[in-house]
Specification:
Shape: globular
Number of strands: 8
Structural class: alpha/beta
Helix content: 40-55%
Strand content: 5-15%
CATH topology: Rossmann fold
Radius of gyration: 22 Å
Bound molecules: adenosine-5'-triphosphate, magnesium ion
CATH class: Alpha Beta
Largest sheet: 8 strands, mixed
Number of domains: 1
CATH architecture: 3-Layer(aba) Sandwich
Distance between the termini: 26 Å
Number of helices: 16
CATH superfamily: P-loop containing nucleotide triphosphate hydrolases
Strand order of the largest sheet: 3-4-2-5-1-6-7-8
Length: about 425
């Protein structure tokens, strides 16, 4: 069973999800067994980015009753002469359009999620499709965003990325406050069913400005319910929610900040909440070689040497790998700050957006002064180390990715048990 399933999503298309997912999974596999699953089942491109032609793919899983783990393709010595990526495998989508895979029904999504939860790997990386329908949402965690990818080149895509965060949180709240939820079996709660759901409708509707975000929703709930444990449960859910993102096609600190970070943070705070915890995992520079390597089906982070070379030089020197391998994760300065208390007032201060933005800018600057010499390979190594750090035991299993893809029916148990554990 995977230690962690890490979905890569973006909301909008063409920002580099697949590029990131492929290279990230390859570098991650240098540390532990990693399987990349192509869940962009309509317009698959993972197989085009990798040099091996799969013998079995999701077609065989769907139509030929193959086990999902039998659809894993590995690189083999021809493309991995030093065995550096011997722990890497991928599950490709079908090469042709197959309707029931391109537009899978809920039953198939559930079967697939069930099998993904059982894949024989430490890490499973999911390359999700663009958009924000059930094909994406069903594969996202409940407690965090997975890894969001966006780019300064498409400011609109940053809004789409923040919409993913909103969708995840609303999915949880809709289940928590949905029909049949045990929440309404609590004393005196049943009568609030309509009230709470109407408030949620208003928050979700961006054209309705009366309740712009979940922070205002909380204030209004507090007015209605007074001090109630559910308020703390919700504000705790918001404050413990983790948003992780990567800037792709990074082209400098100013543009990255102005054209990607600001619109992302502003949309999050205006339309979702200013209580979320954001982590920038790093960036991937814009580099024509990335595009070329995608086109030729040979990822940047793979070593292009042929296996016939007699004396094999070692893997190209990667200063980040080298530096980071010498360091314990605890001295990387990547630990998150102490959690804020959850019982602070629910009213949102105007300055919170500014605080969040300022925090993101400082991270960007600090990373830039440290890492500006890095080339593409090191960009990926750095992000992998950040991710490994966040998935290490010093953080809980809800920090980045998920240990299990859970069905909506299971969410309520999971959600309530999480609240009682706190
Ligand atoms: N850092 C980069 N530098 C240069 N080109 C890049 C970079 N990242 C991605 N590209 C190019 O941008 C295009 C989109 O990338 P990719 O297919 O990875 O995006 P995607 O988000 O997976 O798209 P889709 O939504 O269609 O699945 C590709 O042509 C790719 O080669
Ligand atoms: Mg893609």
């Amino acid at each position: 069973m995977p230690r962690r399933i890490i979905p890569i999503s973006s909301g909008k298309g063409g920002v580099g999800k697949t590029t990131f997912a492929v290279n990230f999974a390859l570098v991650l596999s240098r540390h532990a067994k990693t399987i990349l699953v192509d869940l962009d089942t309509g317009t698959s491109s993972v197989r085009g980015c990798l040099p091996v032609e799969p013998l079995k793919d999701l077609y065989h899983f769907k139509r030929k009753s193959a086990r999902l783990e039998d659809c894993i393709t590995t690189l083999g010595p021809e493309f991995d002469p030093d065995g550096l990526h011997s722990k890497f495998g991928f599950i490709a989508s079908p090469k042709n359009f197959i309707n029931e895979l391109a537009n899978p029904d809920a039953k198939f999504r559930r079967e697939l999620a069930y099998e993904i939860n059982r894949l024989p790997a430490d890490y499973v990386v999911l390359d999700l499709r663009a958009g924000l329908d059930a094909n994406v949402l069903d594969f996202l965690p409940y407690s965090n965003s997975g890894i969001l990818v966006f780019t300064p080149h498409h400011p609109a895509a940053t809004i789409a990325a923040s919409e993913i965060v909103k969708a995840i949180l609303f999915r949880s709240l809709r289940i928590l406050f949905g029909k049949g939820s045990t929440f309404f079996s609590l004393p005196r709660m049943e009568r609030y069913y309509t009230f709470i759901n109407e408030l949620l409708d208003q928050v979700e509707d961006v054209y309705d400005e009366s309740i712009p975000n979940l922070d205002t929703f909380l204030s209004q709930l507090r007015e209605a319910l007074g001090e109630h444990p559910i308020l703390h449960a919700i504000s705790d859910t918001l404050e413990s929610f983790r948003v992780h993102y990567v800037l792709n096609m990074f082209n400098g600190i100013d543009q990255g900040y102005e054209q990607a970070v600001i619109p992302f943070v502003k949309n999050l705070t205006d339309n979702v909440s200013s209580r979320l915890h954001l982590t920038q995992l790093g960036w991937v520079v814009e580099d024509p070689r990335i595009h070329e390597s995608n086109r030729s089906g040979f990822p940047m982070v793979l070593d292009r040497r042929t296996p016939t070379t007699k004396v094999r030089p070692s893997q190209p020197f990667d200063p980040v790998m080298d530096e980071l391998e010498k360091l314990e994760s605890s001295v990387l300065g990547l630990r998150r700050p102490e959690r804020r208390r959850t019982d602070r007032p629910v009213a949102v201060k105007k300055t919170e957006t500014m605080d969040l933005l300022e925090g993101q800018l400082q991270t960007l600057k600090a990373m830039y002064s440290d890492r500006k010499q890095d080339a593409v390979r090191e960009n990926f190594s750095y992000i992998v180390y950040r991710a490994l750090n966040l998935m290490s035991s010093s953080y809980g299993p809800n920090e980045l990715g998920t240990t299990q893809l859970a069905s909506p029916e299971r969410l309520l148990d999971w959600y309530l048990s999480r609240q009682t554990q706190r």
